[in-house]
Design a protein that fits this description.
With 252 residues, the chain is an alpha/beta fold. It is 34% helix and 18% strand. The structure holds 2'-O-acetyl adenosine-5-diphosphoribose.
Length: 252
Amino acid sequence: MSLPVELRHRLVEARHIAVLTGAGMSAESGVPTFRDVQDGLWAKYDPMTLATEEAFAEEPSLVWAWYLRRAQMIRLVEPNAGHLALAELATFKKVSVITQNVDDLHERAGSDVLSHVHGGLFDYRCFDCAAPWQAELEIPGDIPERVEPPKCTACGGWIRPGIVWFGEVLPQKAFQDAVDASASCDLMLVVGTSGIVQPAGSLPFAALERGTPVIEINPEESRLTDYMTHWWQGTAAEVLPELVRLARGQVG
Ligand code: OAD
């Protein structure tokens, strides 16, 4: 058990816990992180160049196929014990889940996600007129290198994933909700993020500035560790179930 007594009391007494999660939250489900080495067919593409408006405008079928592959991978995996623990925590505490992840594993574990600050892989909209696209996504068993995106029924433009691409602004309401929750909670957890990407990486400071304790859960030090109230070294699926037991006042 790696939580100082004072923080254990704060955890038991907390009425509103904000949780910022990153790619490490989904690692134990087997979701390759954004910057994982691309394998096979995709080895020759740099994700940093594919996840941009310019790439989609230039090669919509290539970028669409790449996201179909990611959607297929996420459909094949399950939420892990960490996702399930956060959903359990919300059965007896107010929990605001703020995630940088574009997968839907928090939702599939039963969490109500307050904010997807980098958008969602399963939210689609028209690249040209931004009309939402609600049709059922068809994911072929064997995804070729290029797949033509669906067309917008309103304007005929290409449909794109609702993910925040490099250079794009974050969804305003999602980020404001995240700031409000970070600034109003009485305890914050930061799970599985390197803290590299801004402005998401600044959210824990909205809590710290008000004297709210922030506990980081990560097997390795991150850009945030030096500023955290406490670093609970470990993985999401190991630590979060233990944290929920402590939150229930179950010691040992
Ligand atoms: P990173 O890949 O930058 O960081 C993942 C963090 O998770 C690292 O600090 C790891 O140490 C930690 N980690 C790994 N396995 C873990 C585990 N089992 N349990 C807990 N932590 C673990 O991912 P993010 O910080 O989420 O943006 O990256 C932020 C953004 O960068 C992503 O949202 C993405 C990317 O650009 C978009 O896609 C728009």
